[in-house]
Amino acid sequence: MRFLHWFCLSPLLLPGWAGSAPAQTLPQPSPAPACAAPALDRFIPHSTTTGETLAAIASQYGLTLATLQHFNPRLPQSPLPSGTTVLVPPYNGIQVRVPTGSTWNDLAQAYQVRADVLFEVNGCQAPGAVAFIPRSGTQRPRALPSASDRYEGLTASPLTVALASGLAYGWYEQGGQGQTFHNGLDLLAPLGTTVQAAADGAIAFAGSEGDYGQLVVINHAGGRQTRYAHLDSITVSVGQAVRAGQAIGTVGNSGRPDINPSHLHFEVRQQAPVGWIAQDPVLHLQVEVQ
Questions:
Q1: Local confidence band at 123 (pLDDT 50, 70, 90 cut-offs)
Q2: What is the DSSP pairing of strand 247-251 with strand 275-279?
Q3: 39-64 pLDDT, tens per residue?
Q4: Which candidate, 79, 179, 175, places its Cα nearest to that of 119?
Q5: Which residues face 275 on adjacent strands?
Q6: What is the pLDDT of residues 80-89, one digit of tens each?
């Protein structure tokens, strides 16, 4: 077991960090606290008006023409008859058949898209018969946050005590049922331990949310986000501005934790074209590992 000793940090002075922006000016986009439905289940049926073309519809939805052609292969590029249904995906990508027995790691190698991104884009479940692969307009992999992208500016410990890592970020075998992805860091701590905001921000979600249990989501400058799950109590409300180190709740065991000992499930996410993508929290905190 890795023991992580936490301490108050000074801001990490890395390029692109906007940590000095006043908390009250931070945007408060939808927190999307739970894993979104699979991309293939979120298509919009667009009914055309007279003279509309696939190119015009693609522009309207911020997609490439190639994406719409992929999902509407029988429709011409010429003006479409009024009332024609065009299937519009939530973002650029392609649908592929998944070979029997393939894992997200297999598809990641084949299509050069991170396995954890594929996992989240496809509803946080094991691969089915088909999968959505996010792509750019040139049909090369879309630029997405890499696992090593640092979140510049986590200036406080999520907890008020020295603690141990109960379950790290990454892929795990789940009782002979195949691999599952753990998108945060479980930090062991006694029930009732004070949980702190890791950086300045605005509360985007505070309440009960499925497997997360009692959850607080904080949006930070630069399209970054932290999540604090399985809480026992919450002491902040949506829209409230918070500062690094401010108490936001206490450690609990609500929801469906992945491990039995009491702990805080802590996530760091970056906003991307395909949603809020989880990153390894250890990359964003100055810690001493023993």
A1: confident
A2: unpaired
A3: 999 999 999 998 899 999 999 998 88
A4: 179
A5: 272
A6: 999 999 999 9
Nearest to 265 by CA among 179, 169, 174: 169
How many angstroms separate the CA atoms of 205 and 215, rounded? 7
Residue 25 CA to residue 265 CA, distance in Å, equals 27
What are the residues facing 182 on neighbouring strands?
Answer: 170
**Largest distance between two CA atoms of the chain:** 67
> How many Cβ atoms from other residues are within 10 Å of residue 18's Cβ?
14
pLDDT digits (tens, 9 = 90+) for 227-240: 999 999 999 999 99
Distance CA(170)–CA(105), nearest Å, equals: 12
Virtual CA dihedral for 67, 71, 72, 73, nearest 10 degrees? 90
At 34 the pLDDT is 60
Identify any residues that bridge with 264 across adjacent strands, giving them in sequence order. 187
Q: What is the DSSP string of the chain?
A: --EEE---------TT--TTS-GGGS-------SPPPPGGG--EEEEPPTT--HHHHHHHTT--HHHHHHH-TTS-SSPPPTT-EEEE-SSSEEEEEPPTT--HHHHHHHHTS-HHHHHHHTTSS---SEEEEEB-TTSSBPP---TT---TT--S-SBSS-EEEEE-SEEEE-TTS-EEEE-SEEEE--TT-EEE-SSSEEEEEEEE-GGG-EEEEEEETTTEEEEEEEEEEE---TT-EE-TT-EEEEE---S--SSSS-EEEEEEEEEETTEEEEE-GGGGS--EE-
Of 233, 238, 235, 151, whose CA–CA distance to 198 is shortest? 151
